[in-house]
Amino acid sequence: MASANNHAGKNDDWVKLVSSDGYSFLVKRNVAMVSGTLRTMLSTDSAFREALENTCPISERAVIVEKICEYMAFNAQYEGSKEEVPLNELTERILPELALELLLAADYLEVFPYSHSTLL
User: Fold this and answer.
1) How far apart are CA 114 and CA 116, in angstroms?
2) Distance CA 80, CA 37 (A)
3) How far, in whole angstroms, is CA 58 from its chain's centroid?
4) Quick one: average pLDDT of 97-108?
């Protein structure tokens, strides 16, 4: 049991996110932890299947999960950074027709805008 907790606590572990249409995305655990919902699912203090298998099903289409993964990686990269955050680098890749669906998914997953400024 202790080895499972040590294994799950490493920042270099990978987590699999599976979209509702069957696509899988591998992200580093520290990137997935940007999401409050995923953080709870992957908590080693819980007995959730997601924590045991390092796999989280997400009830969203792959295109939405992909954008959520991009944002979580962006957020993890710049968290605590003193350098200027290039928000346009991220926002230019969001298609207008996906914006509402992406906003709803981000709200459910508790993936909030970067702390230095707002994307909304």
Assistant:
1) 6
2) 21
3) 10
4) 94
pLDDT category of residue 3 using cuts at 50, 70 and 90? very low
Residue 36: count of CB within 10 angstroms of its CB:
12
Tokens of 47: 């007995």
Residue 44, class by beta-carbon neighbours within 10 Å (0-12 exposed, 13-18 middle, 19+ buried)? middle
- Report if pTM > 0.85: no
- Please provide the average confidence, as pLDDT, over all residues in the chain: 84
**CB proximity list for 46: less than 8 A, separation 6 or greater:** 40
For residue 82, give the 3-state DSSP assignment. Answer: coil
Angle at 113 between CA 23 and CA 92, to 5 degrees: 65
